[in-house]
Write the C-alpha cells for this entry.
Amino acid sequence: MTNQVAKIIEGNWDQIKGKAKKYWGQLNNDDLATIEGSYDTLVGKLTETYGWTANEAKLQVNSFIDQVGKLKDKITDEEHGIAQEVLETLSNSIDKCHERLSGIEDTVSSYVKNNPTKVLGIAVLTGFAIAKLLNLSK
C-alpha cells in the first residue's frame, strides 16, 4: 500500500497539499514546498514536526490519503452532470453578452460616424448640464 500511496501523493500533490495543510495544521507553506509530493519527505516532516515514529507517520499519511479518496468519491455522477450544465449555461451566457456588446458597439460607432454634428451637440450640452449641476451644488 505504501507504494500506491506514494504514487498518489507524487501524482496529485498540487491538488492535495492544501488538504494536507488543513489535516496537519502544524505544517507550513515552506514544509509543503519542501515535500514537493515526496512520500518519504512527507513522512520525515511529520516525524520531525509531530514527534511521531516513522510507522506512526506512515499510518497518518495512509489515513489521510484514504480520507482524500473518500472526499473525491462523494462527487457523484449527478453532481458532475449538474456542474457541466452550469458551466455550459455560463459559457452560453458569456457568448450572448459578447454578441450583444459587439452589436451595441457597432450601433454606437455607426451612429457617431453618420451623425457627427448631433453627437458633438449632445456632448456639448451634456458638458453644460454637468457644469450647471456642479455650480448648483456649491
